[in-house]
Each structure stands twice: as C-alpha cells, then as structure tokens.
C-alpha cells in the first residue's frame, strides 16, 4: 500500500516536472517553489491545508491531464512512472483506470496525513513529496 501512495504522489509531481534535477542550491530553490505552487493549486479555499475533498477534486484533474489519449485509463507512457512501479498499480488490463487511480490516491492521502486530522498541511505534503523523490 505504501508503494501505491508513493505512486500517486509521483503522478502529481510528474505534472510539475518531467525530470528531477540534481540536488544543487539553485535546483532546491526551484523545487521548493514548485512544491509550494503545487500545494497552493491543491488548496482550493486557500486555508493553508488540503482536505480530502480538495485533494480528490484535483486528483481527477491530474488524471485527465495525464490521460493524453482520453481513453479513461493511464498507460505506462502517460504516467512517467518506471515500468516496474507502473506494473504495481496497473490492473489486469495493464492500465490504471479511474477507479484504480482513486484507490491509489486515497491511500496516499491517508498515509500523508500523519497527524490524522483529515487534512494535509504544507509540511505533511512536502514531507511526502520528498519521500517520493527519494524512493
């Protein structure tokens, strides 16, 4: 289940950057700015935290953006995931459909909500992004 959570956030992070830069001071600054912007986009009501509903609303946007051929399923080349990671999430058809995607993201949210308050604060979100990047 932890692998699925990492994969969901990998999909979100992949929208912001197709590649991960080497850790330099300049790259870290750009990465921090990008992470803050992703959090702001997810935080629809701008209250400084992302609710499950905000997360769910935006996760489908992420799905539809990634689904370039609009077949309502993500193929390996649409996700930016390594083949072995993609295979972990893909169903019997070799694709990630909307229900599989929702399941992955639900578990990712729950894992990231370390204080179990039903919200992701900025630190919880950044911590999970960093964990995904370091896998």
TrEMBL record:
It holds the Pfam family EF-hand_1. One of its GO terms (molecular function) is calcium ion binding. The keyword Lyase does not apply. Keywords: Plasmid, Signal. Residues 100-135 form the EF-hand domain. Residues 1-25 form the signal peptide. It comes from the Bacteria. This is EF-hand domain-containing protein. It comes from Azospirillum brasilense. The lineage of its organism: Bacteria, Pseudomonadati, Pseudomonadota, Alphaproteobacteria, Rhodospirillales.
């Amino acid at each position: 289940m932890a692998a699925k959570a990492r994969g969901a956030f990998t999909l979100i992070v992949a929208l912001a950057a197709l590649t991960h830069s080497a850790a330099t001071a300049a790259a870290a600054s750009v990465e921090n700015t990008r992470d803050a912007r992703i959090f702001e986009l997810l935080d629809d009501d701008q209250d400084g935290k992302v609710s499950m509903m905000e997360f769910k609303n935006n996760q489908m946007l992420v799905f539809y953006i990634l689904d370039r051929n609009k077949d309502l399923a993500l193929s390996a080349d649409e996700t930016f995931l390594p083949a072995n990671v993609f295979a972990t999430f893909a169903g019997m058809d070799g694709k990630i459909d909307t229900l599989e995607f929702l399941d992955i993201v639900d578990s990712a949210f729950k894992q990231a909500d370390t204080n179990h308050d039903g919200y992701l604060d900025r630190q919880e979100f950044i911590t999970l992004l960093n964990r995904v990047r370091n896998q």
